[in-house]
Amino acid sequence: xxxxxxxxxxxxxxxxxxxxxxxxxxxxxxxxxxxxxxxxxxxxxxxxxxxxxxxxxxxxxxxxxxxxxxxxxxxxxxxxxxxxxxxxxxxxxxxxxxxxxxxxxxxxxxxxxxxxxxxxxxxxxxxxxxxxxxxxxxxxxxxxxxxxxxxxxxxxxxxxxxxxxxxxxxxxxxxxxxxxxxxxxxxxxxxxxxxxxxxxxxxxxxxxxxxxxxxxxxxxxxxxxxxxxxxxxxxxxxxxxxxxxxxxxxxxxxxxxxxxxxxxxxxxxxxxxxxxxxxxxxxxxxxxxxxxxxxxxxxxxxxxxxxxxxxxxxxxxxxxxxxxxxxxxxxxxxxxxxxxxxxxxxxxxxxxxxxxxxxxxxxxx
Length: 365
Prior knowledge:
The protein has helices at 4-8, 23-30, 46-52, 66-81, 84-91, 99-107, 112-119, 122-127, 134-146, 153-159, 165-176, 179-188, 191-197, 211-224, 232-239, 252-260, 272-276, 298-310, 341-348, and strands spanning 37-41, 58-63, 265-269, 284-288, 312-322, 337-339, 358-364. It is of the alpha/beta class.
């Protein structure tokens, strides 16, 4: 089975310098256990590393992009040779003016392909490797060019301060949610602008309705129902760093558990479909599938879902996100795959990577 995403989208660019799915939600949903065989989309590597903290027997990280695998590979090298504080500086979570020196210490642990990629990116390394993907540059453009037209720096800082739920709602409705905010937000996060500057235009192939309206509704939820002071994704979008909150893989208590298990990870530049061709039946204990089904027709989604189930052990969990296209187990597979809707709904309500419209958690029977 050929990958529809590989045929439609351009994977030569460096798209994501960070994972934009909440690892806390992922880990609770996917239920990695010691001894498990896990399969994950690589993306920038943060959530693969988060899964390593649970000591699975093996994680295979897949991506069609050599740039994305270079991002994962540099993170692995950083966890091997740097201190926790140095990793935060290299990523850009903390300020620092010696990132080139930190990179040189990691460089000898990279493959030739990853080394060539990062050797060609000195400005990106100097800014912090978490800022140099297309998606992060899109957010930086919003932060630097659009947001100042709406709200002052001091108001952004006030938004990010810890408040009660009632205080957050009052601040949002009385000070933040202006007409200019809504208008500029809808323009910048429209299908056209996001497709050109943030994501590949082909990723909107199966999306219906207003992209901007859906994202605006989820943003309102993240700034009122959730606490921005505890949300690393909101903080990065609005400040370009992590002032008071870190994603799971970058928290100090998770650093050593990840470092101990780095040798259990392998990565491949390969589509999920191609990888499944190499597997015997009933091998996989859990899948982190990011939002890959967003880019597939319903027909190809269902075809791949059947193959994922055939390669999985009973009890294996499949975890994936819907951003704008609605994908979930078809009724015809009800005897093979159980929908864990209550689990998914409860976790989605806490999802700090707020722009996804749904979290899907399913279990192989």
